[in-house]
Specification:
The chain is of the alpha+beta class. The chain has 2 domains: about 375 residues, no CATH class; about 35 residues, no CATH class. Helices cover about 30% and strands about 25% of the residues. It has 10 helices and 21 strands. The strands form 6 sheets. The chain has an 8-stranded mixed β-sheet. α2 links the parallel β5 and β6.
Length: about 475
């Protein structure tokens, strides 16, 4: 009888060891090149289309796959301005075919560089159809390569503030000094990017989030494998050609700081866009900075990378990490133009005295296009828990105050939000910011959700965070 008890104990211990081994985290990362191959190519991010013929620096889909023994999660950050849900859903399905990863467990987001090929219609730009197919396939390919690189790993998290690179770009200004909006109204109480030290500036219309969140992944023996950072900075700009903006420069600089000589595994630095819908890198309370092409990008990347290195050196890494994912689809109303507004827009488009590329003509075109939008649109919210760290994913250009509210109310203390994730549904101001008006609220394909959209979205993210905690 004693031998039987001993045998059972040994078998039980073996099963426990096997279970523990399965629960140990594995991770794999890969930076998939997604730089366009043919030129000229349309680039969006402005009122008018730009046809670009050269590359200043390459674009990537930076992929990180995590496996806790029970499920796999893929996190992908793509150097692009605006990526529609259809493209992301297609990429997830293609990735599932080669990796087996459930599409619900895949988060794909755009960095919001304004120097990447257009993959959805916005203002004067239309999608580059060939590049849409190219990017979709490359994202799926990058996820598969990251999965192939899975190795026993450990993970840690930290945060650090960098308030000197983020400024709210919406300014309250004295009555009568704010120009009329594209629809002929003079009701705006705030102005986006008003200019440096212009007359009548009062105060920024909202806060910024200075916190940089840092999710660090190392191999089991302590080699840096990847870092997923998150910062509420819209973009920097200043490069005339195809460019990953500061997001790409950050990845390069971080690699120099953390893994300068490391060849295996290849370290992958990733910067995701936080809640930066009303935030940029320009301080309008002071005079303009004199910078050459791409110079400010490199300065910001260096500052932020050094901050991340500072917190990285203090992070405690663990391998007993579990994963959890929850998603929710919301149906929200669309702010559609009425008949009178459409007729006014058509007259503006027909008026040859109004130049193409002016905000009046651009928004007239947007108004005509929006009349064909559905009355409601569906969007995906997602929450991912990685150990005791939570990520909320929202398919909008989210205002900073919304991200701050989610962090404050989250059931997990270590929480950050990735914007432009799993789709693109325009700007997301709060109802109070809508009341102030300004560019981010002007009805267009870049801003069309119902005025109160931020409320169900915030509540939905908090609900999902409860599910995964």
């Amino acid at each position: 009888m004693r031998w039987l008890i001993t045998f059972c104990s040994v078998v039980g211990l073996a099963f426990n060891l096997m279970a523990q081994e399965k629960s140990v985290l594995r991770a794999g990362a890969y930076a998939q090149d997604v730089t366009p191959k043919s030129f000229p190519i349309s680039v969006n991010g402005g009122f008018v289309d730009r046809q670009i013929k050269a590359v200043d620096d390459p674009l990537h889909a930076r992929c990180l796959v995590l496996d806790d023994g029970k499920m796999q999660v893929a996190l992908v950050v793509v150097d692009n301005c605006l990526i529609p849900r259809e493209l992301m859903d297609d990429a997830k399905k293609r990735a599932q075919k080669t990796t087996g990863i459930d599409p619900k467990n895949i988060l794909i987001s755009a960095t919001h560089t304004h120097s990447a090929p257009s993959v959805t219609g916005a203002f004067g730009s239309a999608a580059n159809k060939e590049y849409v197919e190219f990017l979709t396939e490359k994202i799926a390919e990058g996820i598969a390569k990251a999965q192939k690189n899975l190795t026993p790993a450990r993970l840690g998290f930290g945060t650090i503030d960098e308030p000197n690179q983020v400024f709210n770009r919406r300014w309250k200004r004295e009555v009568g000094l704010i120009p009329a909006d594209p629809f002929g109204n003079t009701t705006d109480k705030v102005q986006m990017n008003p200019g440096h030290e212009v007359k009548g500036l009062l105060e920024p219309a909202g806060p910024t989030d200075p916190q940089i969140s840092v999710l660090s992944v190392q191999t089991k023996d302590g080699k840096p494998l990847a870092i997923l950072a998150n910062y509420g900075l819209h973009y920097v700009g200043g490069n005339p050609n195809i460019s990953a903006d500061y997001f790409g420069a950050f990845a390069d600089r971080l690699s120099q700081l953390i893994a300068p000589e490391q060849k295996s595994p290849v370290f992958v630095g990733i910067m995701s866009n936080g809640t930066s819908g009303d935030v940029n890198n320009i301080n309008f309370a002071k005079g303009p900075l004199k910078r050459g092409p791409g110079e400010q990008i490199r300065i910001v990347a260096d500052v932020v990378a050094k901050k991340v290195k500072e917190v990285y050196d203090k992070i405690e890494h663990k391998d007993n990490i579990t994963l959890a994912v929850a998603t929710k689809e919301l149906s929200l109303k669309v702010r559609k133009p009425n008949k009178d507004e459409v007729e006014r827009a058509k007259k503006i488009l027909a008026d040859e005295s109004i130049k193409m590329g002016t905000k009046e003509k651009v928004y007239a075109q947007e108004t005509v296009l929006l009349q064909d939008y559905p009355d409601e649109v569906k969007l995906i919210l997602q929450a991912i828990r990685i150990g005791d760290v939570a990520i909320g994913a929202i398919p909008c250009e989210v205002f900073a105050e919304i991200g701050l509210e989610i962090k404050k109310k989250s059931p997990l203390k270590q929480t950050f939000v990735i914007s432009l994730a799993n789709g693109y549904n325009g700007y997301l101001p709060t109802p109070a910011q809508h009341a102030l008006g300004g560019y981010e609220t002007w009805r267009a394909r870049s801003s069309y959700l119902e005025v109160k959209a931020s409320e169900p979205i915030t509540a939905g993210i908090l609900e999902l965070l409860e599910k995964v905690k």
